[in-house]
Amino acid sequence: MSEPVDFIVPMLREMRAENIALHEKTRTDLTKDIARLDKRIEKIEGSLVSFRQAQTADTLMSKLVTGEFEERIEILEAKVRQLEMAK
Question: What distance in Å separates the CA atoms of residue 23 and residue 20, rounded to the nearest whole number?
């Protein structure tokens, strides 16, 4: 009968060869997953940038609109003063 060492060493070599292939597959899959996640993060960050820009634009528009109304009110008040003085 063969010695146990004769069975163990070849089996360990086979297991090592299988593990190398599995580890390489895991690395490849992990690299693909990380690349996919990076793309998703970039897309989300891009959305955040456009959202922040929209917020800034909204604030700016509000200030412009409010300023326009204030100017119109000042003009109307000036006209009322002129009418009051004309009486």
Answer: 5
